[in-house]
Amino acid sequence: MPQVRIIAKNFMDMVAALPAMKLDILYENPFICEAILRSLPPLAKKYVTQMLFSEGSITAKLLEEWVLPDGSTKHRVSIDRLVQLRIFTESVESGRKKEKSYRLNPTFQANLQKRITTGGVLPREPMPPSLTGRLPSLEELEKYALEQWECFLLHLINSGQAEKVTSFSPSMMRVFQRGLLSQSKDPKLTESGFQFLLMETNAQLWYIIREYISNSEERGVDPVDLISFLLELSFHMTGKAYNLNTLTDVQRSTLSDLADLGLVKLQKGRNDSWFIPTKLATNLSVSLADSSTRKQGSIVVETNFRVYEYSASKLHSEILRLFSRVEYHLPNLIVAAITKENLYGAFENGITADQIVSFLQQNAHPRVAQRTPSVPENVTDQIRLWETDLNRVEMSPAHLYDDFHSREVFEAACDLAREWSGLLWEDSDKMRVVVKAEIHQNMRDFIRGQRQ
Amino acid sequence: MVGNASTEGVFIACDILMAQLIIHLNDLKAPSEKFIIRVLDEKHLFVLPDAAGMIRKAISMSRKRNSFQRPS
Questions:
Q1: In chain A, which residues have their Cβ closer than 8 Å to the Cβ of B54?
Q2: What residues in A contact B6, CB-CB < 8 Å?
Q3: Disruptive mutation site among B2, B7, B11 for chain A (greatest number of A CBs within 10 Å)
Q4: Which residues of A420-449 are buried (b: 16+ CB within 10 A; e: fewer)?
Q5: Is B13 at the interface with chain A, CB within 8 A?
Q6: How far away is chain B from the Cα of A351, in angstroms, using its nearest Cα?
Q7: CATH number of A11-118: 1.10.10.10, 3.20.20.450, 1.10.600.10, 3.30.930.10?
Q8: pLDDT tens digits, residue range A396-426?
Q9: pTM for the full predicted model
Q10: C-alpha to C-alpha distance for A261 and A254, rounded to whole angstroms
Q11: Domain of B20, in residue numbers
């Protein structure tokens, strides 16, 4: 089984991985400087702010004196991060002491100074209500964003359930699906695909945005433009309208993709068109850990293996279908049953019992979530038992040795195998021993040596 | 005799039931196709290196035979 894990890497990790030239271009935008500053570890933030208004460089030694001795690991992590992001430029003095010193990236410094003293103004202002009329309320907007996102996910997992069509080209969709679906004629969700579906919306969004950015060059869009636009977008106000004519062509075409993901809502007025950023967009530059607002769960599992999910979402029923048999689909309720056959199907796709159990627990309906355990124990136990039932037989390539001519050699051989932690089985009466195939070579050499 | 014969194969650790199932499979085979090299004890077997896939398949077959699926 391939061990591909989907790590929703941070936006900033991606920024840090950019070539130096592109980073310098990014720092021309004050918003990006601020977004970067926000993303830094606390100690690094302190260093930047402390050095913000001092010209010239600071020696590494002096910097080290700012922290207590037990903070030295954090100190190193912060410095590495700053150098990686090219906020700090390292220079080694040519004097005989060869002291390292750091200084702030001048563009970054100048922009951040400006941003702090005068405050930033977005390249575009929200449009006055007189032009736009009534705008969707925050709740409506959130509902819209989630709907769009769900529709996108349905397309992603290739279900025929999605009603709306996305404007993403099939090739773009294939890029997103890479790694989530098996590459066969009849694509099936892989292990990592299932993990992806169980992730939080924000984490999922990261994954998709990352793929979107790393693929941008093939579409003839500079990743730097894209990153700076996405970061800029995260500074816009949720629910305010911004005029489309303030954007470049590239940004406008990006925006229609983002609308498909539910990051923005596009609207048209009599003369103008505008976009309204949703919560998904403004959360982009917030690091993953900070934005873990848990959705309210909606699943009730009964002791008779029935699963009730109070949801109208087709995506949820698709997820349930991965490991249970969906029996009824009512307007606001999905009734399913966890069966052995469906679970075996899930296990074959590489989904583990623990993942399923934790999915049921994390999405427990508020009514049952207060109870402990939120999912009946007999159900969780049975899911785990069924999984172990699949692994009743353990096989390992091995070598069997017998016909030892003396007990001493046999025991020495057993000890050796134990030392290499490769002993699988021994029978001291009949003097037989089974060792792992990896240590066969060592064993053979040893026994040959004994023979002489 | 200075033996120390070593045999390459696959070591199987399982419960008694599964071991019996595998032994039964072996008994059904023609003499030229027998795959068990040695029955080590009631829970451990040593079989030919290429038998692993066949055994797995046979076990999942017997599992399917032994489970009931409600006709839908």
A1: none
A2: 399-401, 440, 443-444, 447
A3: B11
A4: eebbbbbeeeebbbbbbbebbeebeebbee
A5: yes
A6: 18
A7: 1.10.10.10
A8: 899 888 878 788 888 888 888 888 888 888 8
A9: 0.63
A10: 11
A11: 10-65
